[in-house]
Amino acid sequence: MDRAAAGGCESHQTIRLAVIKQGKRRRARTFTQKIGELQTRPTAQNAEDQAAEWGMGMKPTRIALRIAQTGLFLAIIGTNAVAQPNWSDSRAVFDERLAVFIKDPGNFPYAPMEPLAGTSRWKPLPKASAKQSGIAPEALEKARAYAQAMNSSAFIVWRDGRIENEWYGKGVDARTPLVSKSLSKPLTAIAVGRAMALGKIRSLDQSIADFIPSAKGTPKAKITIRYLLDMRSGMLDQGFSPDPAHPYNSALLDNDFGQRIIESYPMPYEPGTRYSYANAPSDLVGMVIEGATGQRYGDFLSREVLAPLGAQGGRIWVGKPGGLAHSGCCTFLPADTYLRMAVLLLDDGKWQNKRLLPKGYVAEMRKGTAQNPNFGLGIWIGDPYRLRRGFGAPGTLGPQVLHSEPYLDPELYLFDGNSNQIVAISPKYRLITLRVGPTPPAPKDGSAEWDNSFLPNTLIRGLTRR
Predict the structure, then answer these.
(1) Which residues does 152 contact at the CB level (< 8 Å), separation at least 6?
(2) What is the DSSP secondary-structure string of 133-198?
(3) Predicted confidence (pLDDT) per residue in 295-328, tens digit
(4) Taking the model in full, what pTM does it have?
(5) Best label site of 127, 215, 359, 466, fewest CB within 10 Å?
(6) Where do the structural domains in the chain lie, given as residue ranges?
(7) Superfamily name and number for 181-333
(8) In DSSP terms, which residues pair with 423 in a beta bridge?
(9) Are 243 and 7 in contact (CB under 8 A)?
């Protein structure tokens, strides 16, 4: 949906200017002094990593320029003095965030962020030698060239225990945290499975009110954990609105977004009866994990998911310092970490023969629903085939991802996020294909459109050992 359709160009502009004007009156120092760090931090890995920290995909000088232009943060360019919001004034912070979100939702800076610790003993995964490789060099090169042409930051091919091919864009390597978009959603499902394995959650069919006390006695008490993960919560579909009063905005931008979701996010459908894709239900998973384990969501991920996988950490967006983490989107992790998550699922919830997820849990994740057979618990399912598949409910308007042909492994499933972040998992061939990065270029002058089936099918056709 374009912005004019969402709210009208005139009202969009009027609200944006009013919010910016109001926000400029209230500001005092930035979220974690990032502009000053960008100007003075010579030891940072690279400019692209710094930009990724803000979710902008641009150089630091352009970050500072955009921030100065939009007024999200009051920065004194050329000095290290930057302003930080008064976090107790949630309305002022909301207004600042909304001003930028209305201006350019795709370049919204996720701030503040908190460290998400990983293992302290990270080691690269094994790589296949030329003798060990089971994929034709021509197929690997064809797939890599496609990933490079599609504006990727990272491309990895893993087969049966070894990395067959690995490529990173300029300024990116195996340790660079990258914005995940909705690759955070399968991470929520893994977190729930891990909590179940530890005995902290009894069943996917428990009410969320068992873990979120403020949901008790409200319509949201009818929502189960399963319904959060398979997008059948009954809550309103995700959308864009320039209206500050729209519940989608408070659910995303408020300091205490979790409570806003419980208190006021619309629930027009009976849970379990309709597929409605949104960040709001996925963000409630973080609250469930915190209620079940007594740990902050990021701490639980660090200790119980990333560390056991030998995976690196990164950063996670929180509503305010020390506040609830956004579990539904916007976690920054290296490509290698997403690869390890995929290997965990491919091996039925085991990592190096140690079970981290309950037996049968991955099979449960891979089950579609009557409302959307292509979506399971946080993951997408390749079969049944759809030439174009959207993120919203089948048949609804919105972006449609091309699949030029059926996946050659009918059991294939995948992590799939905005801007065509994909991690495709082929059980039949024990093959994982990962591509993350900015949005691929729009097709023009005969250039190819992004095709979800191209990479995995190219590699499957190139298998020399099956």
Answers:
(1) 167, 169, 435, 436, 437, 440
(2) --B-HHHHHHHHHHHHHTT-SEEEEEETTEEEEEEE-TT--TT--EE-GGGHHHHHHHHHHHHHHT
(3) 999 999 999 999 999 999 999 999 999 999 999 9
(4) 0.83
(5) 466
(6) 3-106, 137-180+362-461, 181-333
(7) DD-peptidase/beta-lactamase superfamily (3.40.710.10)
(8) 415, 434
(9) yes
